[in-house]
Design goal:
By secondary structure, the chain is of the alpha/beta class. The protein is 33% helix and 25% strand. It contains 11 helices and 20 strands. A hairpin with a 4-residue loop joins strand 15 and strand 16.
Length: 427
């Protein structure tokens, strides 16, 4: 069986690895010159079952209205994006109802938990190095209201086999001495031991090499112009320039660009781009290297040590269409976060050594990825992961591959397929 994958981000490359290892002939088409040079390149670097909650929490519409147009908002909707967001936004808000939100939360938790296990399997099978840190993630809370939100969040996590421990301020500093400088600003926090850290770009590059050794063919710098279909069945892809590649199965893992690729086949995928930002800087010499990534409840973003040599600050959500311009005011939010969590480190890092990046995270209206069958024979989907693409990549790749290979699935894709949106996406 020949499987063609469109897109070589962390989702596409992981799917390719499991398909190739399972004996399929695999071709991956990627418009960039290497793997994971778009959404996965400089993401927040955390694999976080603890952050499985979709963005559209109950009452999110009040938050959007309150912070409309304010650059400090964790979730910012640009006015220019409103027309393209109307239908998607309606579904986004409808899925923020408490009962629906909790169902989506649990789906994400299940896939994140599975994916953490599969990451361990990949490390065991390949011994790849990607600056992985398995010491867990800390969340700091600035006031008692944040602690109450954290306790409610912890209740759902614990009910779904995600370990969590509430910590006093003293216990936080005891676990992470780098927080000593801000201890008087903290009300306490939480420790998520199952969460991990790693560089998604380095992971993708190394796993691509392993997939190649198993026969996968990666065609970089090749842009998919459209999908081929005959008699209602997907047949392959047509590249920019006219070349056609036929395949028995096609997997579209093209992130936010997936809807445009599959629409000519009559497939409506409700995914829109959500811009995320990151800042990466060298670790200052002479200061303690943090042993844990630190989430800040106030900023809804994280400060992550990578390999003891770099610090990455990532987070925020900005709905602004496919605009990839770096907003200086949004970047300033990340600088404030770094200074607010690690002030001594922040003051030692020159501004000109801060590498800035933004990428488009593919967001579904219920906050759950869209995986598996598309409704067109021979065409599968792997998109819509939002802020959890890195957290869910390994599990997604193996689950999609097993379905295509006809193997007994370890993880069922029922409930993650496009069909869950029913009639509402057919118009």
């Amino acid at each position: 069986m020949h499987v063609l994958i469109v897109g070589c981000g962390v989702i596409g490359v992981t799917t390719a690895w499991y398909l190739a290892r399972g004996g399929a002939a695999v071709t991956v088409v990627e418009r960039r010159e290497g793997p994971s040079l778009e959404t996965s390149f400089a993401n927040g670097s955390m694999l976080t079952p603890s952050l499985s909650a979709p963005w559209n929490s109950p009452g999110v519409w009040l938050t959007v209205l309150k912070y409309l147009g304010r650059e400090e908002a964790a979730l910012l909707v640009r006015s220019a994006a409103f027309p393209s967001l109307l239908a998607w936004g309606y579904r986004f808000l409808r899925n923020s109802r408490p009962a629906r939100h909790e169902i989506s939360f649990r789906k994400n938790l299940n896939l994140c938990n599975y994916s953490i296990d599969i990451m361990a399997e990949i490390r065991s099978d390949t011994a790849i190095e990607y600056e992985a840190t398995l010491t867990g993630v800390l969340e700091v809370c600035r006031d008692e209201a944040a602690m109450r939100r954290g306790r409610e969040h912890s209740r759902i996590l614990a009910a779904n086999q995600v370990p969590v421990k509430e910590l006093s301020t003293a216990a936080l500093v005891g676990m992470e001495p780098a927080l000593e400088a801000i201890q008087h600003d903290l009300a306490g926090g939480f420790f998520y031991p199952a969460d991990e850290v790693g560089d998604a770009y380095k992971f993708s590059c190394r796993l691509q090499e392993h997939a190649e050794r198993h026969g996968a063919n990666f065609r970089f710098g090749e842009s998919a112009e459209g999908l081929l279909a005959r008699d209602g069945r997907s047949q392959g892809v047509r590249l920019h320039g006219g070349e056609e590649i036929e395949a028995d199965q096609v997997v579209v893992a093209a992130g936010s660009y997936t809807p445009g690729l599959v629409r000519p086949l009559g497939v409506r995928v409700p995914v829109c781009p959500a811009k995320g930002y990151s800042l990466t800087a060298p670790m200052p010499e002479g200061l303690p290297v943090p042993g844990h990534a630190v989430l800040d409840d106030r900023y809804k973003a994280g400060v992550v040590p990578l390999g003891g040599r770099r610090i990455r600050v990532g987070g925020t959500v900005e709905f602004t269409g496919f605009n990839l311009e770096l907003s200086s005011r949004r970047v300033a939010n990340l600088r404030r976060l770094l200074a607010g969590v690690l002030p001594r480190h922040a003051e030692r890092i020159p501004v000109d050594e801060m590498r800035l990046w933004c990428g488009l995270r593919p967001a579904s209206p219920d906050g759950v990825p869209i995986l598996g069958a598309s409704g067109v024979d021979g065409l599968s989907l792997a998109t819509g992961h939002g802020h959890l693409g890195w957290s869910m990549a390994a599990g997604t790749g193996k689950a999609v591959a097993q379905e295509l290979l006809g193997e007994r699935p370890e993880f069922s894709l029922a409930g993650y397929e496009l069909s869950r949106f029913g009639q509402e996406i057919r118009h």
